[in-house]
Amino acid sequence: MINTMSLPMYDVYRPDTQALWSALLPLLVEEGLAAERLSIVWPQEEQLSHWQKEEVLLSQTCGYPLVTFLTEVQLVGCFQYSAPGCENASYRSFLIAREEDANKTLADFRGRRVVCNSPDSQSGYNVLRSMIAPLAQEGAFFAGATFSGSHRNSLLALTGRSADIAAIDCITWALLARHEPHLLRGLAVIGQSPPAPGLPLITSSKTSPASLAALRRALERLVGDKAYRTQCEALFICGFSELAREDYSVIVQWQEQACDLGVTCL
């Protein structure tokens, strides 16, 4: 079986993602994973299907799919990030609106339009649902919700005035500020979410304990060796943590708390 690897979640600037892979691959080989069996892929299909494939040696998913759909995959850990909004192994979503609404709070957006990247997103959907739940009336807060397919497209919806507010992953926001700052013009951060565990690095249920241990050793070397600092800093990576599935239980708690308040969707 050919082992595939991908990093689809923060692939804002492909050369930086490729450079990180180029740094990681020889470390994986040195830790005992055969080079001829490693293949980098750029998933074109629906990502949930990709993450569930048995040949996936390493990928990065979102915390919400991890706790709701990806019950069979193994958790490798998560990167730590230095982008504003991150702390150790956690990150936040920023609440983004147009600059004309920069002085407003989330409560001021009652009856307005929200845009989300997808309904299975922790940063763009689940955490925002938990935040508006105490403010909702009869299970509703926004006048309408649309799905854009990506955080980038959500920002375009805000500047295009087809939506008024969005929750954007703080690392994506930092990467876009670095590589596509024009997308952020006319927009403002009006708030932020509580911290959540960082985006999980996962491997197939078929990955052996020895290979899982090798993955973790290679990732520790990647983030700890000064030789790879440039590649890591390009993606705001500053560490690695071996989290457990239990660390992501807060994501389910937020979903359940919103449902208890009668809010099942945005």
Describe the overall structure.
The chain is 34% helix and 21% strand. By secondary structure, the protein is an alpha/beta fold. It has two domains: 3-80 and 198-246, D-Maltodextrin-Binding Protein, domain 2, CATH 3.40.190.150; 90-196 and 253-260, D-Maltodextrin-Binding Protein, domain 2 (3-Layer(aba) Sandwich), CATH 3.40.190.10. Strands 2-1-3-12-4-13 form a six-stranded mixed beta sheet. It has a three-stranded antiparallel beta sheet with strand order 9-6-10. The chain has a two-stranded antiparallel sheet with strand order 5-11. β7 (113-116), α4 (122-132) and β8 form a beta-alpha-beta unit. α4 packs parallel to α9. The longest helix has 17 residues, at 14-30. It is globular, with a radius of gyration of 19 Å. It starts with a strand and ends in a 6-residue tail after the last helix. The model has no long low-confidence stretch (mean pLDDT 95).
SSE string, helices as H and strands as E: EHEHEHEEEEHEHEHEEEHHEH
First-residue to last-residue Cα separation? 41 Å
The strand line-up of the biggest sheet is 2-1-3-12-4-13
- The pLDDT mean sits at 95
- The structural class is alpha/beta
What percent strand? 15-25%
Total count of strands: 13
> What CATH first level of the largest domain would be assigned?
Alpha Beta
- Rg calc: 19 Å
Instruction: Tell me the name of the CATH homologous superfamily of the largest domain.
Output: Bordetella uptake gene, domain 1
CATH fold descriptor of the largest domain:
D-Maltodextrin-Binding Protein, domain 2
**CATH architecture descriptor text of the largest domain:** 3-Layer(aba) Sandwich
H/I helix tally: 9
Domain count: the total is: 2
| Overall geometry | globular
